[in-house]
Design brief:
Oligomer: single chain
Shape: elongated
Radius of gyration: 17 Å
Largest sheet: 2 strands, antiparallel
Helix content: 25-40%
Length: 83
């Protein structure tokens, strides 16, 4: 999975995202393995993901291209109740 490309409503992973992650990890290693900052990487966002509309962890553009893809309903999703 790590070496293959994948584009599903849940995952966008390709050569670009793989390279960005490797670069980020290399940078973190150069900064020192002794750094145990809990916020490390919290602001990291893949450049390919910045332009994507994401709703409930779903990449909407990809879902629109693959409308038969089965979407799992999260237990965290609240359902509307009739008034």
């Amino acid at each position: 999975m790590l070496n293959s490309n994948c584009e599903t409503p849940y995952l966008l992973w390709d050569n670009g995202t793989r390279a960005e992650l490797c670069e980020f990890l290399d940078e973190q290693c150069r900064m020192g393995a002794g750094n145990s900052d809990p916020s490390c990487g919290i602001e990291f966002v893949y450049s390919a993901h910045k332009k994507e509309l994401v709703v409930g962890e779903i990449f909407v553009r990809v879902y629109n291209q693959q409308p038969t893809y089965t979407i799992q309903v999260s237990a965290n999703v609240e359902t509307a109740s009739p008034i």
